[in-house]
Amino acid sequence: MAVMRLGYVHVRVTDLEASRAHYGDTLGMRLVEDRGDALYYKAWDEWDHHSVVLQNGGVGLVKLGYKVETTGDLEVFERRAERFGCLVERMSRGENLAVGDGVRVILPSEHVIELYHDIELVGTETGTLNPAPFPRHLVGVGAPRIDHALITTEDPETLERFFAECLDFRAAERLVTEQDGGELIGSWMFCGNSPHDIAFIKGPNGKLHHFAYQLVDWNAIRHAGDLFAMDDVPVDVGPTRHGITRGETIYFFDPSGNRNEVFSGGYVTYRDFPTITWTADQLAAGIFYIGRELNERFTSVLT
């Protein structure tokens, strides 16, 4: 029984055509469905029907979808979330394009997550028979897959307990006010083998800080930075690297102001991975290890 990974990110945008250029031409995702008021995208090395949904009207996060290992897991996670005190409801096949039955949970942070097992499989762009390492027709950054999301919560302790107790996530790294008995400021939690499948920091409920794409290495991050300059994409920070997760990164904004990230590197986690602790006096190094300086925009701009 397990939550396997982040499956989809559903966000609002103010301009679908500008978003089409950003997510399609610059990031290189493939448009799989245009519903008029919503665009569905997948990256080239993803199996599922879609991983990003852009809904017309406003900005910010609508919901996150997490794929579970078996259909039987849904009932277990549903019961746990109900016992935790969350508002939980069943979702039916057809409510989400190409997604089967599932469980919808309103988190203590007021965000919405959806747990599901079945989703239409359309395959990667290199296939399963003697595949090439990448498709020849990559556009822009050519992002292979989505990786994680970071949200904000007024109560990081409770949200961390929810993901640990209800969904069996573990904390790879924690940010606290002080080493012994300090207040939790942020948590980077995993369900697979990456440094984080969800992360959250103290802030207003219901807000999105960013969602991220995984790239292959530092050279791909640098190349993405060049393309962002060519396409006049507003860059928030980077290229640089994190102390927390050790990943290489660029943060940037889509045309509506939703923050994106391209991320590479990091380390491998396992179920017995010991939690790493960062203290607030080292926050700047934890977030931006090279420059060791946080800009005001990075900590205050949320959607």
UniProtKB/TrEMBL annotation:
Superkingdom of this protein's organism: Bacteria
Protein family according to the UniProt entry: Belongs to the extradiol ring-cleavage dioxygenase family.
A Pfam match: Glyoxalase
Gene Ontology molecular functions: catechol 2,3-dioxygenase activity; ferrous iron binding
Protein name per Swiss-Prot or TrEMBL: Metapyrocatechase
Gene3D superfamilies named among the record's database cross-references: 2,3-Dihydroxybiphenyl 1,2-Dioxygenase, domain 1
The EC number(s) this enzyme carries: 1.13.11.2
Source organism phylogeny: Bacteria, Bacillati, Actinomycetota, Actinomycetes, Pseudonocardiales
Subunit composition and interactions: Homotetramer.
Swiss-Prot/TrEMBL keywords: Aromatic hydrocarbons catabolism, Dioxygenase, Iron, Metal-binding, Oxidoreductase, Repeat
Catalyzed reactions: catechol + O2 = (2Z,4E)-2-hydroxy-6-oxohexa-2,4-dienoate + H(+)
Keyword hit for Oxidoreductase: yes
Cofactor(s) the record lists: Fe(2+)
Top EC group: oxidoreductase
VOC domain: residues covered: 5-118, 145-265
Record carries keyword Oxidoreductase: yes
